[in-house]
Amino acid sequence: MKHNAKALGLLAVMMVLTLAFPICLANSSAVAAQDPTVDVDGVWGIPDQGTDGQGASCDRWATGPGNSPSAISDTDPGIQNQATNDENQIRYGAQDVNDNPPPSLPFADQSGFGFDGLDGASMPTDGTVFKLGTFIHYNGTVNIDVAYNPLANVGLTITLSGSVNAVLECTITLDETVNDDVPCKYPDAPNDPPCGDRVTVASQPLQTTIIEIEGKQYTLEIVGFADCNVPGTPTKIFYTQEKAANKACLYARLVELRTDL
Questions:
Q1: pTM here?
Q2: Which among 228, 243, 144, 236 is positioned nearest to 199, based on CA atoms?
Q3: What DSSP character marks residue 10?
Q4: Which of 36, 57, 69, 232 has the fewest CB neighbours in a 10 Å radius?
């Protein structure tokens, strides 16, 4: 049988390319940059309301899940540092505001906030939003009158540790509405009844977190609240239902600092 020399040469070239191609693919994927991964933890500060900035009436701090935290303190926010990567909480609410001082409601009956940071959070460098953790508004019934300080503004210090280390400061604001308003203050809230409340989040003024990743600089920005599984477009406002533990996730993003402008 005769063999065409040109055909044999072409076949040899094709075999070489076929063998080399998967090797090229393997090498290119091996050097692809990976997004940083961090563990997230959040700690609540002292609410800034009150005549002397003393906080909300009967406020207290806790670490641990839901209504069964592992540690509670009426005076020391540092109790939240007793356990890392756990839900941290601030609660408030008095039994009778006419007493002086008013006695606290049982912890499980109080209103307030919780934040449970995410372990192993991936931080995309392409500007895609990523999850920081779960925010909870424990929206219970509280007693409010002229002499009573409801929870309004409280700082949340979010610490990221792992591939990068950073601290992000934000403020969570609660508008505690009157339950039986007619009409309810916020038409978009779950008013079924009683009337729902509004929670907002904002980065603290003049506070910018800058992170360096593989020689590039990024700002870390709070984007807002959204569903934990299907985030859609996060917003800075979260409307919450009365007498419920309302959950949403808090999202952020990395924004590259341009040096060519």
A1: 0.84
A2: 236
A3: H
A4: 232
The CB density around residue 156, as the number of other CB atoms within 10 Å, is 23
| The two structure tokens encoding residue 180 | 């039986």
The whole-angstrom separation of Cα 215 and Cα 211 is: 10
Cβ–Cβ under 8 Å, residues 79 and 63: yes
Tokens of 83: 């356990």
Q: Which residue has the tokens 């509405």?
A: 177
For 255, the token pair is 């924004």
- Among 214, 212, 233, smallest CA distance to 223 is for 233
> Which pLDDT tens digit goes with each residue over 61-109?
999 999 999 999 999 999 999 877 789 999 998 887 677 777 888 999 9
Separation between Cα atoms, residue 42 and residue 59, nearest integer Å? 18
121-169 pLDDT, tens digit each: 999 999 999 999 999 999 986 765 545 678 889 999 999 999 999 999 9
Instruction: For residues 195 and 179, give the distance between their C-alpha atoms in angstroms, rounded to a whole number.
Output: 5
